[in-house]
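Need tokens for this chain, all 174 residues.
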Amino acid sequence: MNKIFPILVLLILPILSIAQNINGRFSSSIYTFERYENIDVSNTNVRTYQTLNLNINRDIFSIRSYFSLEGDLSKAMDYDPRLRFYNLYLEARNLLDIATIKVGRQPLFNGIAGGIYDGVNLDLKYDDYKLSGYYGGNTPPYQKMELTENWKDNYIYGGKFVINSIPDFRVALR
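Here are the structure tokens for all 174 residues:
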């Protein structure tokens, strides 16, 4: 019985666990360059750059993140190592079959040069119509994990209305 109980626990435990999906990508780079301060003085830098893209999903909820860590191996710098938080937000999809909400540090637009902000994004979708709105604050310099100090002068907001009722045609108002 002493040997059977731990085996039964190990066999039953996966049945009781909650289904989830964890995926991500880790990347590491190193590069070097020489910088001339003047004709006689040069400095060689050996920089490292690591990124982590990690998503944890369970049913309609997700935690999405994207971080980077950079530093110099050749010499100490005042700002090294520097940890940057590009994305760190909670997403709830298809709430009441019409709403998706994101809260946290998130991209304003997915794609290159989309910008990031700290705030909330709400999408409401019904049939072929979608209404989106966002509100938040600009991120501090170097994507530090803190909120901007002067929220009243550094906020952003906006919205979009999209119609997809005509096949192969999309109308959007911003």
